[in-house]
Amino acid sequence: MKQLIECVPNFSEGRDTNVIKQITDEIEKSEGVKLLDVDPGAATNRTVVTFVGTPDEVIEAAVAAVKKASELIDMSKHKGEHPRMGATDVCPLVPIAGITMEETVEYARKLAKRIGEELGISVYCYENAAFKEERRNLATCRSGEYEGMAKKLKDPKWTPDFGPSELNVGAGVTAVGARDFLVAYNVNLNTTSTRRANSVAFDVRERGRVKREGDPITGKIVLDENGNKVWEPGLLKSVKAIGWFIEEYGIAQISMNLTNISICSVHEAFDAVDQRATARGMRVTGSELVGLIPLQAMLDAGKFFLKKQNISTGVSNDELIRIAIKSMGLDELKPFNPKERIIEYLLDADKGTKLVDMNLVEFADETASESPAPGGGSISAYAGAMGISLATMVANLSSHKRGWDHRCEEFSVWAEKGQALKDELLFLVDEDTNAFNKIMDAFGLPKGSDVEKAIRKQAIEDASKYAIEIPFKVMQKSFEAMEVIKAMAEIGNPNSVSDAGVGALCARTAVMGAFLNVKINAAGIDDKAYAEAKIKAGAEIEKQTIALEAEILKVVNEKIDA
């Protein structure tokens, strides 16, 4: 999975649209990132910007935006209602996909170092990126605000993590952090009562409610030995919640901030509210997602609700998302378009048509055209995808077979494994064509001077190696598919054993076809040791695949002939 991180810089300008646009232009012209949202506030004189991309590209875009903000915003003249200490006041990074918090912390510190050293701005690292426990809290880092920073920076306890210990008068001080993804999520109730909605909110939120003697509403408030109120914690960690009435919709909602969806997911929050609302005589009618959500959160929700029905979770991402939307009623108040609400889909929107997005006729026509790509490599990857898809179909059919309900989880595991391999092989269909294009781009580089010739030669070598790695990956994934195919031939629904056999034939074709691409591309590179190693490893995969295919077909034919 491609690594994606979100960056949410807060700039201390919310009124001058020209200044804001110049800053966001720096982000939009950066390669590998997509600007998702620009939210200016006149009263706060502050703009919150959200963009997403691959980690290194996000760092580059963030540095460019912070630099432009430092050139355009003069903090010595800034006024606004929101606490602030710098032109770029805060700049948190958030892990979205394929990356851990630990890795995100390293990128945050890399960003902080560059802001400090390249731009001459004092930087404090906060939240998960903090070097010191007392700096985890952003409010503590920002205490004193801009007006108190010149003195604060000279305090040895507040020496910045990066950058100078003297105040950059124009740019101020920036806080760079790493935090979890925050989801704003509302659950709809069949009531207009804010008080009753609040009762559910207090049940589920982490803070809970004030403890009372006897009656939980009218009883006397319980105090501790210091005279402070005693709180009864709610059901969910990392959740803030309150009940309110939405006049536009004529309903009450539980409005929640899920501050760490790895601790409390959207579907867990929905389920808890549903249980507590039912216990209090109300019904949950649907829910509303505010803003964007990572793909994995929707996939996890879909699997959660399928498991509750004892149905296989080894279905496509589109089906998992559909189940999540319907189970949580995300489309009750307004349409929920996954392409506009899921971060990864939003990022893919501008990338043009992929081969795998074509219909069957378009794909065949494109392959049959005079263009050299897609070629055998893409077709091999697609053959592998079809092979594992057949095995996944057998797994799902087996999980639903009458009398086999007790085996649903068993086949669901196989189906999930199959879906993952299918998705990887489908990615490789387009990536093989991308690899071919890299070679063509390398051959198109200038070759006038000796330096240009050397750069071109190295680019061709690197692109050719990539064009070996992609079909080699097709071989590996198609061989892995054989495990699922063999299992379905042996233990799957006997009525579908021929489908497993066809799957084996497809996977064998994928391995052998991809190996032809490995060999033809290996012949053209200078690194002969690398080429020989890939061919040797590929030959072993091919040998094992052919042997497995024979075993599978033996099982298939024995069952058909029985």
Identify the notable features of this structure and list them briefly.
53% helix; Four Helix Bundle (Hemerythrin (Met), subunit A); 562 residues; 17 helices; alpha+beta; Formiminotransferase-cyclodeaminase, Chain B, domain 1; Alpha-Beta Plaits; single chain; 4-stranded antiparallel beta sheet; 13 strands
Beta strands, count: 13
How many strands, which pairing sense, and closed or not: the largest β-sheet? 7 strands, mixed
| Classification by helices and strands | alpha+beta
- Highest CATH level, the class of the largest domain: Mainly Alpha
Q: Could you please describe the fold and organization of this structure?
A:
β3 and β4 (46-53) form a beta hairpin. The longest helix is centred in the last third of the chain and has 42 residues, at 450-491. The strands form three sheets. Strands 1, 2, 3, 4, 5, 6 and 7 form a seven-stranded mixed beta sheet that branches. The protein has a four-stranded antiparallel beta sheet with strand order 11-12-8-13. Strands 9-10 form a two-stranded antiparallel ribbon. It is 53% helix and 14% strand. With 562 residues, it is α+β, with helices and mostly antiparallel strands.
